Amino acid sequence: MSKLNARIPEGPIDKKWTNHKNNIRLVNPANKRLIDVIVVGTGLAGGSAAASLAEMGYNVKAFCFQDSPRRAHSIAAQGGINAAKNYQNDGDSVYRLFYDTVKGGDYRSREANVYRLAEVSANIIDQCVAQGVPFAREYGGLLDNRSFGGVQVSRTFYAKGQTGQQLLLGAYSAMSRQIGLGRIKMYNRHEMLELVVVNGKARGIIARDLVTGEIERHSAHAVVIASGGYGNVFFLSTNAMGSNATASWKVHKKGALFANPCFTQIHPTCIPVSGDHQSKLTLMSESLRNDGRIWVPAKKEDAEAIRAGKLKPTQIPEEDRDYYLERRYPAFGNLVPRDVASRAAKERCDAGYGVNATGEAVYLDFASAIERYGREKANVEGIQNPSLEKIKELGKKVVEAKYGNLFQMYEKIVDQNPYETPMMIYPAVHYTMGGVWVDYNLMTTIPGCYAIGEANFSDHGANRLGASALMQGLADGYFVLPYTIGDYLADDIRTGAIPTDLPEFDEAEKAVVEQLQKFIANKGSKPVDYFHKKLGKIMWNEVGMARNESGLKKAIQEIRELRDEFHKEVMVPGELNGFNQELEKAWRVADFLELGELMALDALSRTESCGGHFREESQTEEGEAVRNDAEFTFVSAWEFTGDPGKAILHKEELVYENIELKTRSYK
Amino acid sequence: MKLTLKIWRQAGPGKAGKMETYPIDGISPDMSFLEMLDVLNNKLVTEGQEPVAFDHDCREGICGACSLYINGEAHGPDRGVTTCQLHMRKFKDGDTIYIEPWRAKAFPVIKDLVVDRGAFDRIMAAGGFVSVNTSGNTLDANSIPIPKDDADKAFDAATCIGCGACVASCKNSSAMLFVSAKVSQLALLPQGRVEAQRRVLNMVEQMDKEGFGNCTNTGACEVECPKGISLENIARMNREYIKAGLLSES
Ligand SMILES: Cc1cc2nc3c(=O)[nH]c(=O)nc-3n(C[C@H](O)[C@H](O)[C@H](O)COP(=O)(O)OP(=O)(O)OC[C@H]3O[C@@H](n4cnc5c(N)ncnc54)[C@H](O)[C@@H]3O)c2cc1C
Ligand code: SF4
Ligand code: FES
Description:
Mean pLDDT of chain B: 96
Number of domains of chain B: 2
Largest interface: A-B, 82 and 80 residues
Bound molecules: flavin-adenine dinucleotide, iron/sulfur cluster, FE2/S2 (inorganic) cluster
Strand order of the largest sheet of chain B: 2-1-5-3-4
CATH class of the largest domain in chain B: Mainly Alpha
Distance between the termini of chain A: 39 Å
Number of strands of chain B: 7
Number of strands of chain A: 19
Strand content of chain A: 5-15%
Number of helices of chain B: 9
Low-confidence stretches of chain B: none
Helix content of chain B: 25-40%
Shape of chain A: globular
CATH topology of the largest domain in chain B: Fumarate Reductase Iron-sulfur Protein, Chain B, domain 2
Oligomer: heterodimer
Radius of gyration of chain A: 25 Å
Shape of chain B: elongated
Largest sheet of chain B: 5 strands, mixed
CATH superfamily of the largest domain in chain B: Alpha-helical ferredoxin
């Protein structure tokens, strides 16, 4: 048990964070200048952390593999960011945000962390506005809100469909200021390939300069992993092409426990797969479910006619449509949480009601929203007895103002006009709730090694609510880590700079170089993508939206075989010393091939269904997930032992003192 | 579809490069342009050749990483999209497609189609921010109402993705559209107004240092910008610049 002390402060839940902040040790400003911190990743989590730490006076070295911090995957977030501001006066509060997040996570997250997240959420919006983030506003000049799945209040702040972009550019501008002041040294196009642990403490990293190929040693008093999620294990996901698990996986192999690896979020509204050439999937923001209604034909023969191209969706009358979410979940309707919406779509498609050539798509329809908005607008503009055409014209403008860029994106990819015909959507891998295990201070089980943002596991349990990842990334980076890290660094004010000629650096560097050389020297015949796609298929089929014992066992076997084949057969052209994108991919896929096995193992060991993890053995007759609180109210934290299949399970028991465990119902 | 690709190959910075020809077959009109290049690259790797290096990440038009000059146009023939959003249905069977990197003194080639756009980051570090520290007690976000029109204009300017197409399509390799987008966004908001003068002077100074050319109002940048950043931003920046210059002299 000693490995897992969550270090949750004493006291009532609403006082824990304040008390903790008042009691943890601080590093005084003069001493901060003597301390180096490495931040791996410059997305919302890493970017905000790097900026805040530098403002406080620490020397920060920040790393990203893109050519600029502004391009981190966070840039792609569309819909919005939650905060308990209660500007809409609809009864929102810190407690309600806390409650919704724990419930949405299907009671598998840590109460104290989630409460803190809700508590600092309001500060995030203040901070971002102060930086010049142009959130959407109402005519009165105040901030506008929308609602997201799984909740009944409007607490989501947004900037059209580009919220992530605007927030990231805010964090990037804060970083830029510190880069200009020389307090952040930015390493673009650098990839961390190994963690260096000295006397049990994280003291540096080995990185590769992706332009020159040079292997570099960087030392620091603490290392923060902010490298994002691992959804690309599935090859096809909504993540950016470069998103990878390497940094998290390397710290795991060096001793950090990895928590709940099987908790993956499959997002219900993505553009369906169109063919084998597909390299990634595009999300259609959840915010669209505010106004779009999801349906499939109620009659199988209509679905068949549509698939054969003989019928158009607009020709199907209302009474022959099955708005299955509204039917099954009348209280939340189209706004049920993601896991529920995804499984419902799969259920309809598996039953033969899918609407595109592959049979794996459902409709997301804006016709009624366009009409509703059009009527409102006509009213506002005082137009008497407007024609249906006029109403539609006005309505389309309103919808365009709200979701214009998403509609354009859809049209470019699918070559259909979503203002005229419903969108086709299908679930796709989107987010990973699992990640590196951290305590309340966001420290991993390696002293001095922290994990923040999507890279850690801390706040979303078994399912993340929409607009909560941006909130968590910025909460961790702006408001949590900068305080908690001081408690650890207070011991290091007299340590002095960490030398990079220690034997631990020699060893770590040697291991990295040997592996890289092996790839280059390998006389294989197949490109990296071949293996990555194969891994993706195994994961999607057996460790995807529905899982069962025999499938998971099969997956483990297949992944192990694929891993062996990869190391024998992969072909990596080019050189070690230079720009080499195939080599970058090979390194990342090697890690995915190990992590994938741990995900399957974790899914196998958790025989309950909860959140995004659906075990077919554990469901009701109507197909609703059945959780097993008596046996599984814990975080699974895995310890690496040299073989991902032989990882050791540690359990962090979850204690609910403020929220009663209930069956999640959205009916 | 069957195509002939003519692609710029360059081994490294400062090395000589040249156009190479690659025939390619079996391309579906539903593929994106970059997926077409994936097909080529996997073929090259299988044949033991080095794949073509190009920058990309999000593949949905938002990160600004992708950057190709296709048939003489930044981000290719389609309007309002980045290269990663360009689909092969915009081309015809049998077409010859020329693919080159951004060409500008301030964007040196790293390899093949990959260029170094670090100059943009340095311009941002010179002033593209509001000087506010992180703290838990900044003003409440709603304490300063902002007219919706200003907020919307600031947002439009803020959607620049830093791709560099404006520079690549300008005959003078000017970075005015990029710089003016940031200057405008922050000048339009009360939070950014306070430092507006300093900002515009510092950013323009850095822009000049990086070796970008002058703006002669050809408007090519606006046409090729995938995010529709408007020339009005350049006009606004010029006004800000003149104002700042006058004030700093007096
Ligand atoms: C399409 C899409 C839409 C989304 N929309 C929303 C939304 O509306 N609301 C919401 O709350 N959430 C949304 N999310 C989720 C959210 O965007 C992410 O969870 C969040 O942005 C992750 O931020 P991060 O800082 O943890 O990591 P990232 O933004 O992924 O950043 C990772 C960073 O780590 C760096 N890195 C990684 N590995 C290495 C390495 N080995 N060495 C050096 N650097 C490395 C990268 O360069 C990058 O800078 C969305 C996600 C997607 C895919
Ligand atoms: S102004 Fe347009 S073309 Fe220039 S960098 Fe920004 S988005 Fe790209
Ligand atoms: S790859 Fe991100 S904009 Fe094209």
